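This entry is retained here.
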Amino acid sequence: MTMSAVSIRRASAKEILDLRHAVLRQGLPRETAIFQGDDAPTARHYVAVANNKVVGCATLHLNQWNGNPAWQLRGMATSPEFRGVGTGTALVTYFESEILSDSALPRQLWCNARVPAAGFYQRLGWRIESDVFDIPTAGPHVKMSKLLQSGGNAVCN
């Protein structure tokens, strides 16, 4: 599959649930794919869509990083057939540019990244901020962060 067949847009929490469950919580009850804060008015959900099917998703929850307002990236997932063609990069680029376009929004991003995905985030300017730790239902993770700056430059913080 190619990225030309994929569009990125904001979405509802309901739209992302099936993919989030299938990719990140496979074998677990569906409700484990519903995260606290998904229905908060500040939550932002994004999807990559191809042929009217959600093939990528990401969620930003307004949270804190080192005591300051920040966006926590949660539940980012891509359908296996859409990996390695730019779908995840397009999702991250989309929500980062949306945050940068609104001067009132916090510029700090952070996430608990699965260890196999850490390299993906590093290529997009994210920085590993912790040793490896285990999340019982999801495996080994590291904390990562990125500080967005206007003009397309990112600073790791």
User: Anything to note?
Assistant: Residues 6 and 156 are 29 Å apart (CA to CA). Residues 152-157 have pLDDT under 50 and may be disordered.
